[in-house]
């Protein structure tokens, strides 16, 4: 039992190490060649549109989070509500980092494909995608382990950690739905532009 507790105390540091790796990977991707001026201009517009959408979505979701947090505080206690908000904030941070990494990787993958072929493109795309994966796993581990250790691992802690998971899942759910709508709108827009240019 004591060895399990020692491992739990070490867990946040594993999460921190994973997050540092994710940041290092992000900066590696960002350093890759982004192509010519036309490519960088298009990439800049895509990044600007994506970040504007994400900020607007998060602004709307804040109201929802506050309402749910109040209901949780009344029904399950303040600790659960606090963990819910913490989970939501971490999920938002993951989404922000993931969006930045994806928009950086897109144009760099294209440039790598043109210069280095399929292998180079795969490398940039793989590391660009791994930023989000490592960020989610690392920050999730940091959040859950920290909450468990701060609450001393009693029955209240287990209930509160459920709130953390619910907060993270709430943001992920709405981000997925909203992101799907956004990307579909971009797809339809590109299709219309193509048809107009084709006459």
Brief synopsis:
The protein is an all-alpha fold and 199 residues long. Helix content is 93%, strand content 0%. The radius of gyration is 20 Å and the shape is flat.
Write a structural description.
With 199 residues, the protein is an all-alpha fold. The protein has one domain (2-184). The chain has helices at 2-31, 37-75, 78-150, 155-197. α1 (2-31) crosses α3 (78-150) and α2 packs across α3. The longest helix is centred in the middle third of the chain and has 73 residues, at 78-150. The radius of gyration is 20 Å and the shape is flat. The model has no long low-confidence stretch (mean pLDDT 82).
List the helices and strands and how they pair.
Layout: H1 2-31, H2 37-75, H3 78-150, H4 155-197
Descriptive key words:
mainly alpha; single chain; flat; 199 residues
Q: What's the shape?
A: flat
Strand-residue fraction? under 5%
Number of helices: 4
User: Which sequence of SSEs, written as H and E, runs from N to C?
Assistant: HHHH
- Terminal CA distance: 72 Å
Helical/strand content category: mainly alpha
Mean pLDDT equals 82
- Low-pLDDT segments, ≥5 res: none
How is the main sheet built? Answer: none
